[in-house]
Amino acid sequence: MQLNIVLIEPQIPQNTGNIARTCAVTGARLHLVEPMGFKIDDRKLKHAGLDYWHYLDISYYKNTEEFFERNTGGEFYYFTTKGQNKYSDVKYPDRVFLVFGREDKGLPEDLLFKNKSRCVRIPMINEMRSLNLSNSVAIGVYETLRQWDFPELQNFGSLTKYDWSNAE
Fold first, then answer.
1. How many domains does the chain have?
2. By C-alpha distance, which of 101, 121, 117 is closest to 109?
3. Domain of residue 55, CATH code
4. CB-hemisphere CA count at 13 Å for 92?
């Protein structure tokens, strides 16, 4: 199963670092689409991702057009506060791309309009603008993996090291 996380024009290095770490620990591929609000060598980005960078399967794109040209044949779901479908009502297939927009603007309106049936939202209180980007990505990643029964994530290393015989 192949899970792809797409960040279109991310602006905050700490969010991207946290998302990179989520991708590393789950085996998801990360796609970063420019322009970004930081440089990849940004200290804040590296700090948030800690020492997980060498585990990442990551691709970079100069713009949205290049991303779509290089990634055909998958199914794309667009996370947006404007989506009519709840993220948990979608059945995510193999080779899925979960697409997220800028922290300050979200995804481009024309992209959402062209893909209305593939726009999904995370329910929240009406008065609130949106969740943090890295939290939204984590929700999407783990919902997809839950539906797939967490492939390759069944052996939780830290649990096997703990001596449960003395636990109450």
1. 1
2. 101
3. 3.40.1280.10
4. 29
